[in-house]
Amino acid sequence: MAGDAGCWPSSIQYPSSGTLDVSRYVIFARYRAFGKSTVPATPRTLDALEQTIAERAAKPSEKSYTTQLLAGGVETIGDKIVEEAAEVIDAAREPGEAGREHLVREAGDLVYHLLVMLRLRGCSLADVEGELARRFGVSGLEEKASRE
Predict the structure, then answer these.
(1) What pTM, to 2 d.p., does this model score?
(2) Are 131 and 145 in contact, with CB atoms under 8 Å apart?
(3) Which secondary structure element, helix H or strand E, spans residue 147, and what is its range?
(4) Taking phi first (over 0 means left), then psi (-120 to 50 degrees means alpha), and beta for anything else, what does residue 2 get?
(5) Based on the domain organization, do 7 and 19 belong to the same domain?
(6) What string of H, E and C letters represents the secondary structure of 28-65?
(7) 119/74 same-domain check
(8) Co-location of 31 and 92 in the same domain
(9) What is the phi/psi pair of residue 92, to 5°?
């Protein structure tokens, strides 16, 4: 595991009972930033971010970037999503480890802004997961054709 900088989990911790309660499992993923391993991520990282965004929406603060985005509405958040998507593409074109790390940072920004937009429109990460689950096992070409 030393030096493991991959995006995929390096181990999965199962309970001693041999059964896996998916609401409580822990995946340890190793990340590298600035040459050092950072804290492990859990499957609930996006859930925690979504909850933080919900809290900012419920209790707006002038000091909160999330509050400012929500106040700006679809246009403001949409502009940020377009900007961040372009930055993801630019970062993906950068070579080497520095490019990979830049891509991960920009992807994080894009996901954050998407979650803010979902919150604004009354949607949740669970809604998106449900849509992806609906499509699972269906050819992407078939799924796209079904929407036309």
Answers:
(1) 0.69
(2) no
(3) helix 140-147
(4) beta
(5) yes
(6) EECCEECCEECCCECCCHHHHHHHHHHHHHHCCCCCCH
(7) yes
(8) no
(9) -65, -25
Q: Which region, left, alpha or beta, applies to residue 5 given φ > 0 means left and ψ of -120 to 50 means alpha?
A: alpha
Q: What is the mean pLDDT of residues 25-32?
A: 36
Alpha helices in 59-124 (DSSP H): 65-92, 96-120
The answer, yes or no, to whether residue 68 has pLDDT greater than 70, is: yes
Q: Distance between CA atoms of 76 and 69, rounded to whole angstroms?
A: 6
pLDDT of residue 41: 59
Higher pLDDT, 109 or 148: 109
**Pairing between strand 32-33 and 26-28?**
unpaired
pLDDT tens column, 112-137: 999 999 999 999 999 999 998 988 88
* Residue 47 predicted with pLDDT over 60: yes
Those residues whose C-beta lies under 8 Å from the C-beta of residue 2, and which sit 6 or more positions away, are none
Say how many domains are in the chain. 2
In this structure, are 131 and 61 located in the same domain? yes
Q: What is the domain extent for residue 19?
A: 1-43
How distant, in Å, are the alpha carbons of 86, 113, 115 from that of 91? 9, 17, 21
